[in-house]
Amino acid sequence: MNSLTNREIATLTLFTPVILIGFFKWKLGPSVISIFLRFLTPKILIPFLFLTLYAYGILYGAYSLGIWDLEILKDTLVLVMLLGFRLLYKAAISNSGIILIREETAKTFQVSVPIAFYMNLANLSILGEILTQSILVVTAMGGFVATEGNRGSERAQRVMNRITTTIGIFYFFFTPYYLEKNRAIEDLPHIFMTLGMSFWLPLSLFPYIYLISVYSAMDSAVMRLRVAAESDQKPKLRFLLAVIWGLHLSSRLARKFDGSWTYRFKGLTKFRETSDLMKEFRKSLELK
Question: What confidence score (pLDDT) does residue 250 get?
Fold first, then answer.
């Protein structure tokens, strides 16, 4: 299960030329490199490094329990990379860590997750996969550019939806045949292991993502305090502790700790007076 499937080979075959054309023909290289370099900043790399170590610990525990092994390493790496970067980004901008976790939990248990997994079990030939993926890309782009209210556009959209549905129905019936023909049915333990991982691995990452959401919100709040203080000096530790304690380690409270409040903390250094003002801040939110 760790080797590339026909579908993955077809995807690389389709998108590699597009990427190369974008780099050299459309001269997107400098822009892409600039975006990539932004990901190499400590504020992004360090949380992702710790996420990787955290995921390693989770996988070691799963391996000890017998619900994960190296046969599904490729699927695991793809899931951790794609899901990890997306969740870290959302955690950095989320107004509430709890709401973020609720939303992501709901997405994890959507019916579409096992359906998509089931469809992905079967592979056509490389040529068949290239053709199918090309059709799906065209239909997706057509749906994106379709203009609401335009009769011709809506008619074209209905045709594209029917094409997509037809492909889905084909894979629904083709998958059992494919599994039986390729004796993949004998690999059912790893198939179910991969399916289970698509549920328990995201759930196990959520505690870390919540902590990142809280840390990001607190860091932003402290930065706003430094701007309001009009000073390059770091705030005193007792002052920071009073602010963080007053925010109750809540990303929601930290996001609401904006300029209308931060300027009122200018000049404060003592724990008690800072704590009293933080109480006033929380009460103001309760009245809204």
Answer: 84
Parent domain of 269: 230-287
Same domain, 121 and 82: yes
47 closest CA partner among 244, 224, 213: 213
Residues 6+ apart with CB under 8 A from 197: 62, 67, 68, 72, 75, 76, 79
148 and 259 assigned to the same domain: no
Predicted confidence at residue 203, as pLDDT, reads 92
74 and 200 share a domain? yes
| CB-CB contact of 123 with 11 (8 Å) | no
Q: pLDDT tens, 18-45? A: 777 766 766 666 766 776 676 667 777 8
> Is 28 within the bounds of a domain?
no
pLDDT tens column, 188-206? 788 888 888 989 999 999 9
- Determine the pLDDT at residue 152: 64
Round to whole Å and give the CA distance between 238 and 6.
59
pTM of the model: 0.72
Please indicate, yes or no, if residue 279 is contained in any of the structural domains.
Answer: yes
| Separation of alpha carbons 246 and 159, rounded Å | 57
Both tokens assigned to 228: 């309001």
CB under 8 Å to 190, separation ≥6 — which residues? 1, 69, 71, 72
Same domain for 182 and 131, yes or no, is yes
pLDDT at residue 150, as a whole number: 60
Angle at 37 between CA 31 and CA 41, to 5 degrees: 145
Which three-class secondary structure state does DSSP give residue 142? helix
Residues of the chain with pLDDT under 50: 287
Residues 272, 156 share a domain: no
